[in-house]
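Ticket #4471: structure export looks truncated?
Reporter: QA, pipeline team
Priority: medium

Steps to reproduce: submit the single chain below to the structure queue and open the exported record.
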Amino acid sequence: MNAPDLLRAPAAGAIGTLLVERGVLQPEAIARVIEHQRSSGQPFGEAAIGLGLIKRADLDAVLGVQFGYGHLGAAEAPLARELVAVLKPTSRVAEDLRALRSQLLLRWFSGDVRQRVLAVTSARARDGRSFVAANLAVVFAQQGQRTLLIDADLRHPALGRLFHMPHSAGLAGVLSGRVGYEVIEPVGGLPGLHVLPAGAAPPNPQELIGRRAFGELLDHAVQSYDVVLIDTPAAETCADALLIAARAGAAMLVARRHRSRLRSVGELARQLRDAGAAVVGSMMNQP
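Actual output as written to the record:
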């Protein structure tokens, strides 16, 4: 049996073919994996890992391709290690994010165009707000929702770094009228996910957010996407977050365990409601 025959063997199936196509498994190793698979009763990919021929990340990547899940290995994508939903999709953190996604689908993202936008907020800086927003966008896209992630933190943006889009004119360019919606960028390897980075830091961030152009952007977004997530500045540093949440219509609170003050989080929730934004969920980050 030659290598092409081995690739067509039922036991190897699509997983073996994808592993070979990606260059992480040699065609001549197929027979060895099949033999181990039959003796161990394991699936093909697990058998290949057991033999030390591939890594867990290799199997995760091809499973993502096989099931249309969207997954990139660390060596393939210029993405930051914080994007655990991409680089470690089987981790506990990724599973927690998927659970949060399910809750938000029940509580807010009902399909109604008036409930497609959600601001991700926190009371304090370094509470993990951008981490949650970015990974939440990934898991929505992995489930098949057309997802747009907007970095509206024009003071200390993070999403351009996380998704390796540091030179985009971004949201600041759109709101100032210098560029159009063509600066919204797809994320390679993650079908359905688009990102609008913040762009260059402007001298007047709150004035830009308050312009009609921001509302027009959201009107465009809800017609083009199922889920629109907006990363905001920390609420304690400026009023931008309240303004953004009011435009979005809803917000999710992010807090950090052993760091966030309960009083500050409660006060932010009250301010959001007073601004007309529904508080539809919360997430507690680990230290």
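Status: closed, not a bug. The export was complete when the record was re-opened. Leaving a note from the reviewer for reference: Residues 84-285 form a domain with the Rossmann fold fold (CATH 3.40.50.300).
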